[in-house]
Amino acid sequence: MSPEPHKRIAATLEERRAFGLLRRLSVFDTGNNVLNLAGNDYLDLARDPAVIDAACAATRRYGASSSASPLITGYTPVHRELEDLLCFWHHCPAGLIWNSGFTANQAVLSRLPQKGDLVLADRLVHHSMISGILQSRARLQRYRHLDLDHLETLLQQAAPSERTIFVVTESVFSMDGDYPDLRAMAGLKATYGFFWIVDEAHATGWYGPAGAGLLTESGCAEAADVIVGTLGKALGSQGAYTLFRDANLREFLINTAGEFIYSTYLAPACAAAASAAIERCRELSARQPQWRAASSDFRKSLAADGWRVPAGDSPIVPVTIGDAEQTMAFGDRLAAQGLRAGTVRPPTVPEGSSRLRLSLKRTLRDEDYLRIRNFLTIAYQG
Ligand SMILES: Cc1ncc(COP(=O)(O)O)c(C=O)c1O
Predict the structure, then answer these.
(1) Residue 230 CB–ligand 1 contact under 6 Å
(2) Is residue 270 pLDDT above 70, yes or no?
(3) Which of 163, 201, 234, 240 has the most crowded CB, counting CB atoms within 10 A?
(4) Model pLDDT for residues 236-246, shown as the tens digit of each residue
C-alpha cells in the first residue's frame, strides 16, 4: 500500500486530537451501579421481562440469526408480525423493517429524491438523513432549525423546474430534544404540496396514543408520506421501520435499496422484542403525562440551579456547556461519580454548543432527579 493514505489518516487524527475532538470507544458494563442517562431506552423496555421473553422465544424458534437477506430467507413470521403491528399502530397501509435507523434513512433519502428534485431539510436533521440526501444528487437546502417561516420562504423560492420538493424533519430532535410545529408543517404541505418525510426516532413511545409518536398526537400522521422510526430507542430492541401512505414505496425500496437487498436481515429476536415492546407502550401510555411532567419539572430545576437547559417535555435534556474539552472533562467527572451522561461535541452539534445530553427514563424517581442535580453540582465544582 502506498504510504499516502497512512499519512492522510494520521494527519486527520492529529488534527482532531489538537482540537480536542478525537472520539474514543470505551467498553460500557451496566453491572456496576451506574445511573445511565446516555442511552435512548426512554421507557426502560430493553430490560422489560416481556420484551426479553419475546426475544428468547423467537431465538429458540427461529435461531439467533436470520442468516440471510430478507429477499432470500431472512424475512420470518416474526418480521411479518412486526410489520403488521407497526402498520396497525400507525393506521398505515404499508411498512418495512430495516437493520438500523441509519440504513433506513440512508435508503429512503438516497432513493426517493433524485437529481432534479429539491430537498428542504431542517438544519439539525440526523447525519443519516443528510448522508442519504447527498447520495441522491437532489439539490439540498437547509432551513433554520424549527423555523417554518424560513421553510415557507424556501418553498416560495423553489424554481418551477424543480421536479419534486421533499421536506425532511425529525419530530423530536436527537441532540436538542425539541420539536417543530407538525400541524403547521402539515398546513404548509397542504398549501405547497411537497413530499413529507418525518423521522420519529425519539418520539415513539414517549408521545402519542398508545405511544405511536408525535405525528399521531398532533393529528397529522396522515399528511406524512414516509414515517421513519427506530426499534432501538424507546422500543428497547434494535433495528428500524418505515411506514408509507403509498404501498408502492415499499415495493420500490424492496426492489432498489441495496441496504435492504444485500444485507443479512435483522435477527428474529429483535423483531419479536420490538413487537412485545409495542404492546408494553400501549399498556404504559396512560402514564405519559407523568413522565412528560417529570421532564418539564427537571428542566426547570436545572435552570434554577444555573444550567443552560431549554424548557420542554421530551426525554432528551441538553445541558449546554459550550467548550468541547470542558464538556468531555465534565462527562468524565460525572462518570467517576456513577452518572453516565452523553457528551456531544462538533461536528455532531454546532461549534460552541458542546453539551451533556441527558436522556430520561420513565422509571426515574424524584430522588433520582435530586441525585442527578447533586452529581452535576459536584462535577461542576471539579
Ligand atoms: C433521529 C435519528 N434517526 C435515526 C437514527 C439512527 O437510528 P439507529 O440507531 O437505529 O441506526 C438516530 C440515531 O441516533 C437518530 O437520532
Answers:
(1) yes
(2) yes
(3) 234
(4) 999 999 999 99
